[in-house]
Amino acid sequence: MTDSTPLFQPLTLGALTLPNRLVMAPLTRNRALDGNVPGPLTVTYYTQRASAGLIITEASPICPEGHGYPRTPGIHSAEQIAGWRAVTDSVHAAGGRIFMQLWHVGRISHPSLQPGGAAPVAPSALKPAGQVWTGSGLEDYVMPRALARDEFPAIVEAYRQAAINARDAGFDGVEVHGANGYLLDQFLRSSTNLRDDDYGGSLQNRARPLLEVVGAVTSVFGGDRVGVRLSPENRFNDISDADPQTTFTYVAVALRPFNLAYLHVLEGDMTGQPVTTPFDYPALKTAFGGCYMANCGYDRSRALAAVADGQADLIAFGRAFIANPDLPARLKADAPLTEADPKTFYSGEAHGYIDYPTLGAV
Ligand code: PHB
């Protein structure tokens, strides 16, 4: 590995300079304290990973209705902002950079996780197939309540307020979670949006909620500190689109005027189902025209090749960052990687969270 290998070279990303092209992907870890507040273990966890070119936090709900999993840290209360401030201060002191991923789960929730035991909200009353982990067991998803047209401005405002909260908490920027079958993706993709108002039907209408949210968030941070995550082919959370190439090309072009820090693309399908129509990711990168972050199953050799060939500017790693806090140093040295233990991904405390060793300690 020479010093000029692009994967390990700095990159100017909007308002920031990253020391390398390796990003810690957003990863749900379910370690928040009461009130969905990030605690001291979360400070340690992110600080251990400060050598990432950029850390993107776990998806963090923007409002109480945005929660769909137990113990996910939010960004809508004073206690949560204070908890995250301890995280960002510590990551910055360790020399790192950290964006917060802003999340609303929409229909991927359950009354037991909603304020007042209410039904989750969605573009349309369509029940997702599958089950939700409520913290005390698995339950079938329920029929969501279709949002009224006049409710959406309050959701855009919740995103804007969450961006203000994230700025107050010391984040370097935010990523809008437009992927993986959550609220904004439920509007965007044709299988989950059967509305007949100006938030449904045409592609322009289905993309409107995402673009309104990006407008609100960039009004707080400036486009150069905002990223957007999309997942054109992912069927996770029972979602699909009739024509992903057309849908996501439209979105990528519509995002251009915001001069975003990056577009983060989950390439492929997390569910492992075979892909029927191949998606052209290089075409999506060209349509966007800015910094392109690729994610999903990259290993060292694919990451080296993708960045060297110009297919991606940044590579986001998930599992590898869970188990290797010093991932950039390991990849640079071509050192062995520790395997992540799935049993501790979504539950537990310190074990499997902050006790993975660094290279020298293996
Ligand atoms: C999850 O908790 O399983 C999860 C959360 C956010 C994602 C994907 C998966 O984007």
TrEMBL record:
CDD domains: OYE_like_FMN
InterPro entries recorded: Aldolase_TIM, OxRdtase_FMN_N, Oye-like
Keywords (A to Z) from UniProt: Oxidoreductase
Gene3D superfamilies the record matches: Aldolase class I (3.20.20.70)
Cofactor: FMN
Gene Ontology MF annotations: FMN binding; oxidoreductase activity, acting on the CH-CH group of donors, NAD or NADP as acceptor
Gene Ontology terms: cellular component: cytosol
Pfam families cross-referenced by the UniProt entry: Oxidored_FMN
Domain NADH:flavin oxidoreductase/NADH oxidase N-terminal: 7-336
Family: Belongs to the NADH:flavin oxidoreductase/NADH oxidase family.
Protein name (database record): Alkene reductase
